[in-house]
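User: Fold both of these, please.

Assistant: Here is the first one.
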Amino acid sequence: MTRLLIVNAGSSSTRLTVLGPDDEVEEHLHLPPPGNDDTDAALDALVARARPQASVHRIVHGGPWFAGAVLADASTEERLRMLADLAPLHVPPSLQLLDRVRDAMPGHPAVACFDTGFFAGLPDEAATYPLPTEWRVAWSIRRYGFHGLSHAWVAGRLDQVLPPAAAHGRVVSAHLGAGASLAALDDGRPLDTTMGFTPLDGLVMATRPGSVDPGILLHLLRVGEVTLDQLEDGLEHHSGLVALAGNADLERVIARAASGDATASLAYRVLLHRLRAGIASMAAALGGIDGLVFTGGAGEASGTLRSDACGGLGFLGVGVDERANRGLRGEGLISSGGPVAVAVVTAREDLEMARQARALLAAAGG
């Protein structure tokens, strides 16, 4: 099997991972964002050292065109550049690094995997915004969903972490990190999600607000003397936890709240309020809930977050075994024996990207 360079670029960092033929991690680098001289030098050294045969790139937004992994040729790149405005924090750095990796690996295939691809088949009732038809058609406005690579990995792990009835039933997947989203899975197929046209929608996040009344934004533009650029910057970088608590690190916010800090307490309660409501909403889309799976940095690391989230969902039959929850390291069940199985899955978008890329390259004879 092919040795792969997994590429994940953002506005604040670059992650490069080399996966060997059996998908073992051979090297992992966490670097500054693309365009930095140190990042360029580290990339060149890694390619020379590891000799990957293909690169695999996480692209946050696939728009209406990309529902699965594709070879990143000139036609693909042209369309991706048209999507940059939909995910300005993610798509431009990804394209910059795609070009840089191509220079470092001439003659080797590059594969693009999309966070929106998993949700390309959402039911019309979940994907459609009640906006004028001419807007929806002219600008391809719909709910795209994000974190699809993470939710797809969770869907593929359900048989390993949940009892069979739950694994093939109605499961809410909770990706909780600096960015956060939920997905409603029916036998592994997505029926709904909390993010929408862009990654700004849905749950409270580290620096993004999640769902807000669009009238607020109109009001700020109309009478608040806020420019469009200021509005975008505020929504992307200065909202969410950092706005409410002055800190984007959820673990620190939780610790401050536990010590009696009123500001941090409010921030955490707002986050929990939205999270519990979102999980209940996903359960409603599924017509019930058989399983709840936590993943992502905070979803995996914070037993407090998992316990507090589930503590408000007893009416759905959700409960955790506190000893299992607090003692868990890695993946496993943490439910209390009630009707809903609760588990944790280690986020491995890199392995999901590798799975998609290997399938595509095999089909193409690569």
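And the second sequence with its predicted structure:
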Amino acid sequence: MLVLYALREAYQNLKTHASRTLAMSFGVLWAIFVLVLLLGIGNGFHNGVSEAFAKYGAKTMIIWGGRSAGGHHPIPLGMAANLSDPFSAIQHVSPILRHNSPVRYATKKVTVSILGCDPCYALLTHLPIQEGRFFTARDKVAVNNICVVGINIKEKLFGEASAIGQYIFLGDSGLQVVGVLDRDVNFYNEPNAILLTNGLFKQLFPKRSDYVDSIRLTLLPTVREEVVEAQFRSYFARHLNFDVKDTKGLGLFSLAKHAAQFDNFFKNISIFNTIIGICLLITGMVGISNMMLVTIQERIQEMAIRKVLGSRSIEIVAMILCEVAIVTLVAGIIGFTAGFSLMQLLNTWVVPLCKAYHLSNLTCPPSFIFGGMGLIALTSCLAGIIPAIRAVHIKPVEALGSK
């Protein structure tokens, strides 16, 4: 009965002073709205970057020749091509050869990056094929005069027409296009490149084939990356004649290590956004508390009459707390609803335009909703304590005699 009485009285007071109620609730509403939006955008970038890393496999490494005090240490193609022999931990490996060269089709001519790779390169990088196919093991053995072109190069040379089956020319050598890569951002900027098998690359550019540009590989899921990385450094230091302790002697990029760093970074961003939102929420609650103190001062005679008519202190305290709780909970629900509605609009209209920036769908976990509502309930009680104490300590004789 006490709760029902307090809720009825609180509702009547809030309804009577609608403009004041709206002013009280705006701070909490805005705080929740901003907090939901900040967390949603943070999670959107976190999910987008995680999806980008997931495309390349959990244990992907890229190795290239480093440069130390002893000079440059390029990696020979023969060593790179046979790297899986001394390392059973390697699952897939592809040496990468690179050279810039002009290519032409009919009257159109562009200078592009030519990449030489093995057929497993598409598996290593999850290259999206828009049209046609990628290289096969038979293409590698037969050294067929074929190529796969990036989507940007295809549009420059062929426009809207299909490129599959057409021939482009590297000097006097004609290459048949068998595949077109989709528009996706990758490590070697494949959309702006032309890919050949390593065997064909050596035939066309023999002077550029002694040393690899880099090596791309994936490890077996059961191996420890730290151990294999140390083995790689020891192996290449021994064969390329540099000190194994010289970290600049060999370039090594571990995708899992960098993915973990990004994951920690976005977790810290999420914590920071939560702190900002809580600070905004506390500011709103302080505003509500101050406004309730002013309201009680304005209603001092009402409180005194309630006491004279027999209202107990607990009933007055319950009424004050219910007023604060109703304002904050309603404002919180509206803030959550507005925040989630805006996130859905952004997911529909904005996120698809920002895929190149690794922005995925904005999300806010359900646990945050329940946690946020619990926080609102707690802070509403804290915000109402001081006004409630102030109301309890009103002396009817002084209040009624003040006017």
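The radius of gyration is 34 Å.
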